[in-house]
Amino acid sequence: MGSYRIGKIFGIDIEIHFTFILVLLFIFLYSSLFVGGGLVSGISALIYFVILFTLVILHELAHSAVAIVSGIRVSKITLLPIGGVATMEIPEKPSLELVMAIAGPLLNFTLAFIFLIPLVMYSIVTDHSTFASGLSGALSPKAIFSIEGILLLIIAANLVLGSFNLLPIFPMDGGRIFRAILAFFMDYVDATEIAVILGQFMSVLMTILGFVLGNIFLVLIGILIFFAGDQELKVVKLRHSLKGIYLRDVTLRDLERVPSNMTLAEFFRNKFSNHIFYAIVDDQDEIHGYLDLRTIPELKDKGIMQKKIEELSLKAPILDINSEVSDVLLKLLESDFVFVSENGKIIGYTFLPYVIEFGKIRKLLRSFFKAEAG
Ligand SMILES: [Zn+2]
């Protein structure tokens, strides 16, 4: 089970993870049944959650806006129960990363300020005392059904989101700001390593705090951040080990073509060779997908051999042969296979495990020739 697309803003897919829907359901049922106040509590909890995650989307869009303006493609924003993640090629430019990281929390603080204006005006126009009662009653289930309650809620949620994200816990915004500052003075990989170690230390504290306070979200966020930091450090190290390698160095040009209307039985009789990947072509010999033989054993269905190749077609990104591998690493990580094009025409393919092996061999050869020369 994965994510579901709920919309598209500025060309960025907005997806919600299935666990997000489960948590939404859980919160509604829990609040309706156990908090007291019945359905009112359930609905107000739902409204609270929706407001919070609308703000999370806006926060991620603020990061994305800076990325897009700087020419970085943002493919999607995914909502998880513990927050949002914008998927993009993160720039290894400390100054840009700094601005990008600050943009999210800055938007939240700006929104808090903007919503403070109608709240103050409303309180003046109506009665000052309701402002105070609104403050004290902001956490009661019914607060959300008053204008003051909802304004207060939006302001509070923005302040919490903005401040929480500024904690120096990599890969949260504060951690990214910390890494960017370090990277002004030292090697990028070392800066990431230090930011990740600090982040993991903080995330352990957060998890412990979550247990002490009985806050399951803090526990989950702590655990997730611990592993997310590690994961990103691996990607940064991988990206650095692949610097200087271009797609043209790792493009395999022996692309086999298979007609989409062929059955799998015909394919094995006539086309099967020593390849794992095949380009799937239509009547005009246009490529519109690929076949990955590793997926076939997973299809337990008895009629599998009568299936048309078309039905087994997978989509792959098309990358330009002049791209540097480190610039398209995200695409290579996301997809098991990529097509490589030259002047807009597909001329070959590659895949990450092969690229990584190539990188290792190149490193070995370099040290060998260096030793021989010296
Ligand atoms: Zn952020």
Keywords summarizing the entry:
four-stranded mixed sheet, CBS-domain, 10 strands, alpha/beta, binds zinc ion, 3 domains, 374 residues
Task: Please outline the helices and strands.
Layout: E1 3-9, E2 12-17, H1 18-34, H2 38-69, E3 74-80, E4 83-88, H3 94-125, H4 128-137, H5 147-165, H6 173-185, H7 188-213, H8 216-241, E5 257-259, H9 264-270, E6 277-281, E7 287-292, E8 318-320, H10 329-334, E9 338-342, E10 345-350, H11 352-373
Helix pairs in contact: 1-2, 2-3, 2-5, 3-4, 3-5, 3-6, 6-7, 7-8
Zinc ion binds at residues 59, 63, 104, 165, 173.
Please tell me about this protein's structure.
The chain has 374 residues and is of the alpha/beta class. It has 3 domains: 1-166, no CATH class; 167-241, no CATH class; 247-373, CBS-domain, CATH 3.10.580. The chain is 56% helix and 14% strand. It contains 11 helices and 10 strands. The strands form 3 sheets. Strands 1-2-3-4 form a 4-stranded mixed sheet. Strands 5-6-7 form a 3-stranded mixed sheet, with no helix packed on it. A 3-stranded mixed sheet has the order 8-9-10. A hairpin with a 5-residue loop joins strand 6 (277-281) and strand 7 (287-292). Helix 6 packs antiparallel against helix 7. The termini are far apart. Bound molecules: zinc ion (ZN). Zinc ion (ZN) is lined by residues 59, 63, 104, 165, 173. Zinc ion binds at residues 59, 63, 104, 165, 173.
